[in-house]
Design goal:
The complex is a heterodimer of chains A (142) and B (177). Chain A is mainly α. Chain A is built from 6 helices and no strands. In chain A, helix 1 runs antiparallel to helix 6, helix 4 runs antiparallel to helix 5 and helix 5 runs antiparallel to helix 6. The longest helix of chain A is centred in the last third of the chain and has 34 residues. The two termini of chain A are 17 Å apart. The longest helix of chain B has 48 residues. Classes of the chains: A mainly alpha (142), B mainly alpha (177). At the A-B interface, helix 5 and helix 6 of A face helix 2, helix 5 and helix 6 of B.
Chain lengths: 142, 177
């Protein structure tokens, strides 16, 4: 039994996680010395931005699915599940934004926890979908 | 007025979407890990279970058990008493999701079979193991996430309706005085 390394999926994960989460955090971290900013990820993404990023991830995987050779029914089902989880992730940001813009009381802690957990869900589904797509291509090439 | 204000209100355990997100995400990652570690054995195992006819019943049992345990954990963390109605509702929704996926896989299976009979004359067994892998992944994730999504939506609706009803009663009581 030999393990298989999904290089394309790992590249996809690194690219999105790197540019979407690590790069903004590193940028903020580099400005710490000059302005004395709080560089914790929680402070940076406290308004639910991670949830919004989850929606972007979901869209990118839906586009990949569209280009794959899977059946239309399978693509649609996968797109619906990914889209739903992405929209729920974005709703963490949307609820926070709506409440803040209307001057209503809001819990930053709750928004941060919700958006973080929902991003984990989207990232997991998206990564597994990319692994499955790569596996299908490998099987078809055999 | 105080008597009116302390009128009956539903006190169900408040479920948040993020509660089920971690479990669904972890199951999804474990699924990917199983495929990476056993790229041939894992799809074959799933295909065998599917052909024996145990795949969706087993999936339904596992998902209902996972969702009920999750609901108990949520109730304990919020220090609220888990009610039987919500537990039953979650079980029912989980089974509904699995039944929906059974329908999807059966349709895909029949479509593949018919297309191979009528188009290329070479008869295949039905749905391919790659397609089954994708459906199984979606069924697992949806079976955990979708019931909680519906419960959350229902709770919002019930909560709004209760609040509106409660406010109306308070206003009526105030007008009566």
């Amino acid at each position: 039994m030999r393990a298989w390394i999904p290089i394309e999926a790992l590249w996809w994960l690194g690219l999105y996680a790197g540019l979407g989460v690590l790069a903004p955090w590193l940028l903020r971290w580099t400005q710490k010395g000059r302005s004395g900013l709080d560089t914790s990820p929680r402070k940076l993404f406290q308004r639910g931005e991670l949830g919004l990023f989850g929606l972007l991830l979901a869209i990118s995987v839906v586009l990949d699915l569209h280009r794959s050779g899977l059946s239309t029914q399978l693509i649609l089902t996968n797109a619906v599940v990914l889209g739903l989880s992405g929209v729920m992730g974005a709703s963490a940001w949307l609820v926070d934004y709506s409440r803040v813009s209307q001057g209503l009381a809001n819990s930053d802690q709750r928004t941060w926890v919700d958006s973080r957990k929902l991003l984990f869900l989207v990232l997991s589904i998206a990564f597994t979908t990319e692994v499955l797509l790569e596996h299908s291509v490998e099987v078809w090439q055999r | 007025m105080n008597r009116m204000m302390s009128s009956y209100r539903l006190n169900a355990v408040k479920v948040r979407l993020s509660d089920s997100a971690v479990l669904a995400g972890a199951v999804s990652l474990l699924y990917a890990l199983a495929l990476i570690v056993c790229p041939r054995a894992f799809p074959e195992l799933l295909e065998h279970i599917f052909k024996w006819g145990y795949f969706f019943p087993a999936l339904a049992v596992l998902l209902v058990a996972a969702n009920e345990i999750l609901f108990m954990l949520i109730s304990r963390r919020r220090a609220q008493k888990p009610d039987l109605l919500t537990s039953g509702y979650i079980a029912l929704l989980t089974i509904a999701v699995v039944v929906a996926f059974t329908g999807l896989v059966t349709t895909a299976d029949a479509q593949t079979l018919f297309s191979h009979i009528f188009i290329s004359s070479r008869v295949r067994d039905g749905i391919s193991s790659e397609e089954l892998l994708v459906y199984a992944h979606l069924a697992m994730v949806s079976g955990i996430f979708l019931p909680y999504l519906v419960v959350r939506g229902t709770q919002n609706y019930v909560s709004d309706a209760n609040s509106a009803d409660h406010d109306a009663k308070v206003r009526n009581a105030a007008a009566g005085q």
